[in-house]
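This section describes the prediction task in plain terms. A model, or a person checking by hand, is given the sequence of a single protein chain and must write out its three-dimensional structure as a string of tokens. No templates, partner chains or ligands are provided. The sample shown here is typical of the held-out split.
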Amino acid sequence: MLAHLQIKNFTIITELKLDFDAGMTVLTGETGAGKSIIIDSLELALGVRADTSVIKHGCERCEITAIFTLNNNSPAQKWLKNHELESDNECIIYRYVSIDGRSRNTINGVPFPQQLVRELGSFLVNIHGQNEHQNLLQRNKQLHLLDNFAKHKNLTDEVHDIFNNWQQAVARLAQLGDLNRQAQNDLLSYQIEELNKLNLVENELESLHQENKMLNNTEQIIKTCSNVLNIIGNHNFFDAQNQLQKMQELDPQINSITKLLENAVIQIEEATRELQYYSNNLSIDPDRLQFINSRLNTLYDLSRKHRVKPEELMLLQSSLQQQLDELDSITDQAAILKQKVADLTVDYMQAAAKLSESRRQAASKLVSEVTKQMQSLNMLNSQFNIQISMLEKDNFTVNGLEQIEFLVAINPGQPLLPLSKVVSGGELSRISLAIQVITAQKDRTPTLIFDEVDSGVGGKTAQIVGELLRKLGTKTQVLCVTHLPQVAAQGHNHFQVKKQISPDVTITTIAKLTPSEKINEIARMLGGSKITPQTLAHAKEMCEV
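The expected answer:
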């Protein structure tokens, strides 16, 4: 529960320290005194967005510190442990907003982003605001209240998670479905088969060009070989070699020249044999030439078809095969995703069916209890109902398979109508209060705050409202901002809010009242500025609860 609240330089509050007890605590004061500022400051501590306008005029920054006591099994305690925070059954939330726009949040001294502070705050405080009856007109708010009353968060979480997974799988499958995979597969397979039939070889194009050139000039090559052999044969290298050998006998110095000529003769003999062998194996082959020309034409035609260079055909073949492999992989992924979507559809329908059944059971109980509560609030012949409408087949939503709407009938013989059709603001306020009180009784949040939710009611009904909130305060901590003496009189604890105005500054102060001071405050609320002995006696009687 909320144990302590410290406020510094917030709107018109300079500094304030409040200690809170269990039970029902009421906050009262003149209109405009700043009763709801306390709620606003607590909301700021719990992570609500704020700008520099919340800082008291002339100050550098505002600071809020909220201290909560916890029990070992509370969701808040578990949250702290999950985030590795030591608590010793206490949670200290601190927030400041500076004039330069900077803001800081800490939990037990450790900085945390606002989102996580709000997450923790949802386990600590539940605030029912002045406009709650307006929010109650929204179907999603009504569904939220029903689910909270049913206490089946495990079911709503399961449906939510399955739906998100299903939605992601469907979206991914749609992305894959945008590809005309079969047509692409057929085209790639045909192109690859066409290239495979060529049996392409590395550097084949260059080899074909060389052979084509040679075959086109075979006749000239043969003729040239014959001429060269004739030239070599007409030069008598052996005679020259014999004469030099004879010269060696006359002059030994010629020996080195003789050896050079001998080596040259050996090389010439080798060259002659190789050239003769080459020439003998040459022949004009029109069939081979035709094959090569046909092969070259095929390669160039295919390269033009695919808009690549002929020497890049092997690279193209590899690329097309890779694309086909990837397409096969996508096809496999699509098959897996289709199965996943089918499985998640079954899971969703099963989980949503359980949620629907739980909602129907909870709706029946909530209808009975809210109807009884409305009638106790001086709406004697009123009826409350919850209409559950199943959505069309396959119309999945994150909230399940149905929509709900709160219906009421105020007077006998009137049909049940949606809350939005209720004309009277006072009636709507009482209906809202009945629903809030009933659902709050099911709320596990340790601190419930009611910010002038009793507006629009008075007299005997106000007395009943006060009794309801006091009864609720025996089960959980209740903070109630009210302008009704009948409600304020029911409080276990009482704070009075005052606004002090001077020429230079306006400040708000809050004081906890003693029993006698509480009687005086109730008398003020009953009698206005003039308090008579009769008013005091009435106030004292009201406080004897």
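For orientation: Residues 513-545 form one domain.
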